Amino acid sequence: MTTHAKRERLLLADLLEGAGPEAATLCEGWTTYDLAAHVVVRERRQDAAGGILFKPLQNRLERVQAEFRQKPYEELVQLIRSGPPRFSPYALKQVDEAANVVEFYVHAEDVRRAQPDYAPRELDPVFSDTLWQRLERGARMMGRKSPVGLVLRRPDGQTAVAHRGTPVVTVTGEPAELLMFATGRQESAKVDLEGDEDAVAQARSAPLGF
């Protein structure tokens, strides 16, 4: 049975391959080449990947990513497609599913939504619910730097609090769109924002994400 993470991994590899190495992405300053190097380093170089979350390791992460960016683009895409090496924690299906569903979905959208011929992707309800579960768990982390209170709401009324505070902005949309918003891709997210006009403007430009 193909897991969500594996499916999203293969989709990301296909999108990177189709876009080519110099296509734009939603990651500011990154081309598809940079994004591919990032994904490979995160999965295969745990000694450097800590720099994604911890600033003291950021310089090392940037050096290692620059080294991987010297590899042929096609090789990087194939490393993503083939999956993690056996010694990687991501080689365990449970870890892969827990850690990579959001990672691969969001990065696939980073490639898709930056292209001029972008078309919305329809997600099945089971996958949407999976994304919502991940969002519920990570909402506080993703919204910790918000300057305003932030509530994420599905169309059916389910909510997740990303940041406590006032004034409050309520962001309504499908789970995938809320996820894009909460990971700092506010401009690309198809959501509705309710709240004070100034607070809404702050929410749109807030430094959200991990």
Could you explain how this protein is built, in words?
The protein is α+β, with helices and mostly antiparallel strands and 210 residues long. It has helices at residues 4-19, 32-44, 46-49, 58-68, 73-82, 93-112, 125-142, 175-182, 197-205, and strands at residues 149-153, 159-163, 168-172, 192-194. The protein contains 9 helices and 4 strands. Helix 1 runs antiparallel to helix 5, helix 1 (4-19) runs parallel beside helix 6 (93-112) and helix 2 (32-44) packs across helix 5 (73-82). The longest helix has 20 residues, at 93-112.
Give the total of domains. Answer: 2
Q: Strands across the major sheet, in which order? A: 2-1-3-4
Round the mean pLDDT to the nearest integer and report it. Answer: 90
Please give the oligomerization state of what you see: single chain
Radius of gyration: 17 Å
The shape is globular
How many strands in all?
A: 4
Major sheet details = 4 strands, mixed
Structural class: alpha+beta
- Number of helical runs? 9
Helix coverage percent: 40-55%
Portion in beta strands: 5-15%
Q: How far is the first residue's CA from the last residue's CA?
A: 30 Å
Pick out the low-confidence regions: none
Order of helical and strand elements: HHHHHHHEEEHEH
